[in-house]
Amino acid sequence: MLKRTLLLIVFLILSISLFSENDSLIFLENQTPFEGFAITGKDIPNDGGGGIEIEWSFPDSLDNFFLTVLRKDEAGNNSIVATDLLVSSKQVRDVSSEEDPSRVKDGTKYYYTGILSKKMVDEDFLNMLISKENGYSKNGIYIFNNDTFYVTAETDAIISKASWFNLSRIPVVISLILISFVFLYYLNLAKSGKELYIRKINGLDAVEEAVGRSTEMGKPIMYILGIGYVTDIPTIAGLTILSRVSKKVAEYETKILVPSYDPVVMTTAQEVVKEAFTEAGRPDLYNKNDIMYITQDQFGYAAGVDGMMMREKPGAVFLQGLFFAESLILAETGHSIGAIQISGTTETAQLPFFVAACDYTLIGEEMMAASVYLQKEPMMLGSIAAEDLLKVFIMVLIIVGFVLSIFAYGFNIGIFKNLFDLLARALQV
Amino acid sequence: MLKGKGIPIFITFLVGMIMIISFFIPHKPFGDIEKISLNWYSIIAGFTMLLGVDSLIGMHFRKLKRKDENWFFSLVLILGFTATVVVGIIETVRFGTAFDDKSYFTYIYNYFIVPLQSTMFSLLAFFIASAAYRAFRARNFDATLLLITAIIVMLGRVPLGEQISPYLPKFTEWIMQVPQMAAKRGIGLGISLGALGVSIRIILGIERSYLS
Questions:
Q1: Which CATH class is domain A202-375?
Q2: Does residue A166 register a pLDDT over 70?
């Protein structure tokens, strides 16, 4: 009897373990955790193609749940888009990338399904769902290893396509047209011979004085372009000023040293200085080795330039370009050797350091206008006048918006906000 | 016909216009132009690095050859440069990357370069003190105004300021958010318009000083 009972117990245990094996799956068709349980998808607007955006809007109580998104293409191939996203993230993008350029093909129909779960999704369950035999056509509740997974119905077919125009940039187009019109108007005005005024910039008037003083003292001039690359506007502005300064240097028959942070900037500076010396009629004075590469390490560059300053003791130091934390290290060293210092940068955080340590500082736009100021060509002056008109326009806009926001209680000033946003976007402020 | 400086000016105009157009058209091939251009730039920059190294090493070799003043530092630079390059190559062969935790290249980076960078950066504190001393000397009205504002802001940002008056941190915040921000945005606006002006002058060929 005991033997029979024991055999029965063993049989029962084996039966239970067989039926409750790890891969047990219960499926309850068409059951949903709440009404409207679905995900939606659409082509990403205004993109270059190869991208679909999947969105969902579930009740806030499910914010800490996870959502896994699966995709099926028109050939029936299933793949995983993203696993275990927090429901609160509300969306995910299925996009082609450099690593996987054919992930989402334009013109192909894609169908998406979401799996909602309290725990992270089980890998075996996921593999089972995306296997070609099973597919995941059925929406409903799946209970796998005692974990519940809610599977949405498939989305409608979604097709990715490339846009021919980025509609979100229409405000920029309008600004571009307006700005171009103002610039062209003033350029024509300058062409017709109208005299345009440019205000006095002390820092640029001092260029001649600085070069002359250095020549008299028999000392070289040092021109520092900062740690920007040739793609940075301040570096380009610095190079245009370098051209004018080099011309003066050649006229005074003195020496210019240009320690560079970037080899491309160094090569460009060599060409700029060479051309300026040639224009001044003194190509023989040009020495390629005076425009040298230091390093692409920020503080290594500062140390190298400081050392050069201490050894060469230049009579004038120009700091024109893009500067960051090294600005004061350079400017203070220049001050300590008694050089005339003319600085200029667009980095507003570095301007106070330059103002404190240098004799003259070109603040932001003055640096951009420096080349025009030093050359004073009518056409170039025209572009400065256009900039000024735009500045006046922006100032008027700010003042009008400011006054209206104070006095016009209840008046809708959204139009001013939109206008200002539009300008800010156009100018990338 | 285009000749002389006309060719680079035309190329600049053409490339500038293509870049502007590509900003509005995401469709291929326009949408990829910026990325392709940056890749080209990276390739060119890679080759110019050789010119940079040539310039650096050449300058120090000349100094060494002529036995110029402080030639010893040039020797240190050349030896340091050579040692780093050699170690970098050996460790890349050894570990597959020069930046492996056990690599001597990582050792050089962590125990030579990083401390040297930190040393230079820490010098900034002393330079700020000397520059601030000069800037804050109350020589005229502007400098006095700067001095008073700086004292208020500095006090308002430390616990002592709150002890003096609970309004001091609030006033500091107001200075930073209103007058300081207004000036900063004004300068920012001017810079953006200036950058626009430089770009238009270069694209239209009015600014030619960058041409050789």
A1: alpha beta
A2: yes
| Residue A264 sits at the chain B interface (C-beta within 8 Å) | yes
The conformation of residue A428, written as its DSSP 8-state character, comes to T
For B202, name the nearest residue in chain A, comparing CA atoms only. A236
State both tokens at A248: 């003066």
pLDDT value of position A146: 81
- What is the rounded CA–CA span in Å between residue A150 and residue A62? 12
Q: List chain B residues with CB under 8 Å of A49.
A: 26-28
Q: Whole-angstrom Cα distance, residue B185 to residue A387?
A: 16
Map out the domains of chain B as residue ranges.
8-50, 136-189
**A297-320 confidence digits (pLDDT tens):** 999 999 999 999 999 999 999 999
Answer whether A85 touches B (CB < 8 Å). Answer: no
Indicate which of B118, B196, B199 best probes the interface with A, i.e. most A CBs within 10 Å of its own CB: B196
pLDDT tens for B154-173 read: 999 999 999 999 999 999 99
Residue A144 has phi, psi (to 5 degrees) of -130, 120
Q: Kindly state the percentage of chain B with pLDDT values over 70.
A: 97
3-state secondary structure of B21: helix
Please tell me the CATH code under which domain A21-159 is placed: 2.60.40.10
Question: Complex ipTM, two decimals?
Answer: 0.89
> Do residue B193 and residue A391 have CB atoms under 8 angstroms apart?
yes
Q: Cα–chain-centroid distance for residue A187? A: 31
The residue type of A275 is: E
The domain segmentation of chain A, as residue ranges, is 21-159, 167-195+382-427, 202-375
Quick one: pLDDT at residue A19?
Answer: 44
Nearest to A148 by CA among A140, A156, A158, A157: A140
